[in-house]
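Hey, resending since the last one bounced:
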Amino acid sequence: MGRDHISNLRKDYNKHSLVRADLAGDPTAQFDAWFEQALIAEGELEANVMALATADSDGNPSVRMVLLKGILDGTFVFFTNYLSRKGAEIMANPRASLVFWWRHLQRQVRIEGSVSKVPVPYSRAYFESRPAGSQMSAIVSPQSEVIANRKDLSERLKKLEKQAEGGKPIEKPTHWGGYGILPDMVEFWQGRENRLHDRFRYTRSGTIWKIERLAP
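The structure tokens again:
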């Protein structure tokens, strides 16, 4: 199977439809409803996977997959190393976009908005809920930096494991924590037959959300 096969890959979408009357007045409520369905259709370990797009001060974009870990005061929260590439880009340009793709439901949600750090106690509480191995990895890995080899990371990890065995607590590093994206645009996309998909866009004006149908 060569690359010529790519142009012939097709799938028709015919499981669901979306009409204006189906939509909640607030996009977060609508997201919650779709997310609950995605938890069943996609499985609990897949529904919260999302693509995060950021850009630097010159507008150069980058995108990666991260995990939604909560919705706090209307913001969509993920956790990372603040010194990573995404952290540096958010500092320079505090805007971001998210995409959720729920294959079994043939649905997509796009979110655009401003980004800010979540409160330290919230980040600390989540950090303390993580497995010890994940906590240690957040400490020893200089995320996005060039490293000589994997051995250096393994040695740092072993050293930290010995400290933990000696009773030293694993504390959240200051360079690690959560970001929340506060939406000003949310789009709900439902796949339909013949590529005539249903698309509805929420845009914020103050505290009011405007809902519009978009052409596919």
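DSSP finds five helices and nine strands in the chain.

Sorry for the duplicate.
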